Amino acid sequence: xxxxxxxxxxxxELKIGGDAPIVVQSMTKVHPEDIEGTLFQxxxxxxxxxxxxxxxxxxxxxxxxxxEIKARSPIPIIADLHFSPKLAMMVFDTAVxxxxxxxxTMPKxxxxEILSAAREKKVTVRxxxxxGSLPQEYHRFEKLSEALVACALDALELGESVGLYEMKFSLxxxxxxxTLEANRRFATLTDYPIHLGLxxxxxxxxxxxxSAVTLGxxxxxxxxxxxxxxxxxxxxxxxxxxxxxxxxxxxxxxGVDIISCPTCGRCKVDLIPIVTELEKKLEHxxxxxxxxxxxxxxxGPTEARHADVGIAAGKKSGVLxxxxxxxxxxxxxxxxxxxxxxxxxxxxxxxxxxxxxxxx
Amino acid sequence: xxxxxxxxxxxxELKIGGDAPIVVQSMTKVHPEDIEGTLFQxxxxxxxxxxxxxxxxxxxxxxxxxxEIKARSPIPIIADLHFSPKLAMMVFDTAVxxxxxxxxTMPKxxxxEILSAAREKKVTVRxxxxxGSLPQEYHRFEKLSEALVACALDALELGESVGLYEMKFSLxxxxxxxTLEANRRFATLTDYPIHLGLxxxxxxxxxxxxSAVTLGxxxxxxxxxxxxxxxxxxxxxxxxxxxxxxxxxxxxxxGVDIISCPTCGRCKVDLIPIVTELEKKLEHxxxxxxxxxxxxxxxGPTEARHADVGIAAGKKSGVLxxxxxxxxxxxxxxxxxxxxxxxxxxxxxxxxxxxxxxxx
Lengths: 360, 360
Prior knowledge:
The structure is a homodimer. By secondary structure, chain A is of the alpha/beta class. The first copy, chain A, has helices spanning 35-47, 60-72, 85-91, 108-121, 144-161, 176-189, 204-220, 235-248, 271-282, 300-306, 335-349; strands at 9-11, 14-16, 23-27, 52-56, 77-81, 98-101, 124-130, 167-172, 195-196, 226-228, 256-260, 289-294, 309-313, 318-322, 325-330. In chain A, strands 8-7-6-5-4-3-10-9 form an eight-stranded parallel β-sheet. A five-stranded mixed β-sheet of chain A has the order 11-12-13-14-15, with helices on both faces. In chain A, strands 1-2 form a two-stranded antiparallel sheet.
């Protein structure tokens, strides 16, 4: 996988693009006036690995709240601005690291002024073009992907015309294929970092599949410097799915990778509830670990040897592996507890050990 | 998206490869001796769109059971054979349409005999190479992907040497990147249909993400003629995820696509439980439909207009759309019921209407 070459920009101290790791973002889902609720969502997402958080700023109260949220947030904040140039200008006084502007929801003249102010205040800008809010003038394009690219390029030019270069771009549609095409096209035309996402991806299950396909395809083509998985669910879910996608492609490793066989007529134990329970108990771990749960003699023992720790299930008892070595033999009812014990031991032995990772 | 050119083979009456739609498969997860349990899983998967089902055949009892299962199955059956050449030869008397052989679990001489018998009996063969059970002789390769390809090519040659051409191939690893590389490489070297899958993908959540990334990337490159999503969960889940992946890429449309915004500080209603409930209530529908649930004035109304039916949420009431036309205005507590009513009406108006689709 060869990553597309881009310039590197900064969001506060966070590097985006160039040789920086692909950054994981999310967005809070309560009105910022609910300062504690917002900070709770930020904190949960942060613990799951979120590195920058977007917050909607729909009114003056939101701007006021942003000051305190900014002061207490462990990660850079991006203010999401629509419709009101006045509010946008007010946000520069909150010290947030970034703003997101949508050319479809801000008059062009105002957009130029805000971009100019961003340059002056050293605030990083995401130009976020969205299929749901494309300005009328881009409806002339036959293909949605072309309209998205044209709109993004015009905003890029507008930014550069006022001397702004700390920009990243997103081109989102709710249609996967249009999103793929728009991003591929934009990627060949500029060297700005790209923020990937699928808009209105939907609820947890289908939103996860659609996002994994879209982001997976683009990342495998080397496109994407920061990502957000949009789900109709809490921000922490978005972050978990984002890392699962990045881990799958070997781009960033975080959290537990459970390798478990799908089970079949050869399997002598009911693996589904065991694996389901295990997945739940391990979801908060940030340390990269591979845990295998295999129910079958065909692939079981060989696969389990690759894992940090694993169970290969036989008829009445399972064999516990740790880094390739058999260390125990136990009946199914003890598998989960012993696996958790072993995982805890591995976590404690690691340099990155912290108490919140413990599983018991 | 340009699909790789392959020869077309048949599994019973089902066409695979060439210009045939990408076929969705799954695998049963109980011992076939449990005939009713096996048929229940087949039936559930079939209703979700499963077009061929694999069944493990670990012993003689399984072979016996296969006869009755075959007689009652609405879709072609593929017997999964390992270790015992004798059992494999017995399976030819059950009239199943296909067999799956793994060069890593069958001695080479026996493999040749079985392939020859398959040709004679007109039984379609999948050669399924798996990272967990690669024969010793392929351990010499530095890269796992190269070892998988070499093993598959040797089996291909063995098949052709006895005049067998009704073959498809799978190259599965539990590592996404290795699986991508193996399939890409194999795809350039032969014109046989490819069966895609990621082995030991894991439990529902992470297995879904890993499978969506792997299959999404390969399908977007035109590779893959039949797919199976392996999950540690019931076959029907595997089929649902498979269709979500195919739908995302526009390769096959089936079931409801829910477009819903991730919600943010602008959203005045709690969309998450509404969308979650809706997703559950609509998961059994096979008719392709787009349903929008939008909570925000920024993208809401515009996006909802594209959907077959949708709600755009305002402060105290939502606007109900049907194919772009506003047809009602209602408070949040009535949204789900009215959406379901509208969806039922759409289903009834369609040619493919059947009672099992109804949502009320």
